Amino acid sequence: MGEVVPYKAGMQHGQGYNTYLQSLCVKDAVTIDRHEDKDPAFTREYDSEFIEEYEKIAKSMKISAGAAVSGWGQSGNVNVSILNRSEFESSTLTYEVKVLVQHQVSVLDKHSFNKIETSNPHATYGDRFIADFIKGGHFYARVSITAKNSSETSELKQSAELAMTMYGVSGKVTQEVEQAVSSIKRNASVKITIIESTGTNKNSTSGGSFAVQAEESSDLLAVKAKADQFYKDADTGKHSYILFAVLGKYRNLSNFGSYFVPFDYQIASLRSWALFNDFTLYKAIETMIKAVPAGKFKDGSERKTQLSNQAINIFENIRNRVHRIAEHPEVAKETPDHEKPDNFRLEVLKAIKTVDFHAQSKIIPNTDDYWTDMILPSKGSSEEHLFTFPAFDFGDLIGTEVISFGKKNSAEDYICLIGERATSVDGYKELSHFWIFPDSVEKFAMDMYAVSKVSTRNLMRVYAADQRDIENPRPHQRFWFFVPNA
Question: What is the top-level taxon of the source organism (predicted)?
């Protein structure tokens, strides 16, 4: 079987196709004498996988880099909800759950190339033609897990790895899996974006009455039930949606001769994943700029508008480059001229206001020598001042986490959380909260601090930290964080 690409409305047998942009070209580029198998065999697969690299999501959906960039935001071309970069960047862990059912295609079809007068055969014919269609069903769920307390990320990952074993042909919901799911519910927020493509009439030449459904969930066990049922439904012939187009090569047609030399996009497609990553990062940064209130920018709404327009101009630059590559694949070898996303993100961060927060020690009343450290937006008159640093007082910035200090209502017990507010803990009131970076940001957030807990009491310690506190943490250290350079 040849290369397969996602089905889109309007595709026809024998139609020309551009694999780089995944776009349709001239109809009847090839005449096909079809052999229809009325009861084809099918294959099915069902698994889950940890997603470390963002582009893997697009590849799982069989979307090319060129198609993702050129078709972004156009209905029916690219599923933006699945490819939400902001959500991916803000999640602690991302997994995908896939069930794929595919009916076998005929190998007995006959093909004949049709010569069409054209001054630009590459634009007319593309580099492939649609030889056949694969019917079946596709269940895809992107699972985004975000830790409530980022100091517990390693424990969360262990729970997630165990929970994900329930997906698959041999996956079971054991007691250990149920415990892992419960742990995830307690310690993280879960968002699951589901795309189902299926049909209801296996014998229809058009693929039957089909549905492409998108929904969201937060219930890992409910998704397990959905995926299991989707897999089982293949036995009853339910899945008959046209999933993919099978592509053929013009050069393999006996009467093609040397009518033209189709483009070879293989290297251009590989190189374009870097453009895809830059494009989606710019989209995420633009979304961030829109979310930040105008009053949080140092120069107000004018600066916000300027940065937003700058982002739009750059991802339009990337999109135009993709279209040039489609016309001239060798352009992919040239170094892009747009500003790198990390540099632009740095420019945006530097344009946003910070607020000074003050670390200080508070003596515990009616004790001989006990105190707790806190970080507050103002200096207390009776507290010992330790140090001051800038941070953010809102949470719309990519890569930031909230830190929250709290005190128990009925006792001199204190907590400090990262990734979670003290207001979520029963019996505690929040003393302060602010947003920092859990990881350093080169040229912007390099000043490091850490928080630890006193071994015998619920009292906190805060201190300036360095690389040694990462490699060899101090006793009872909870977490470290980075703030904008003073």
Answer: Eukaryota
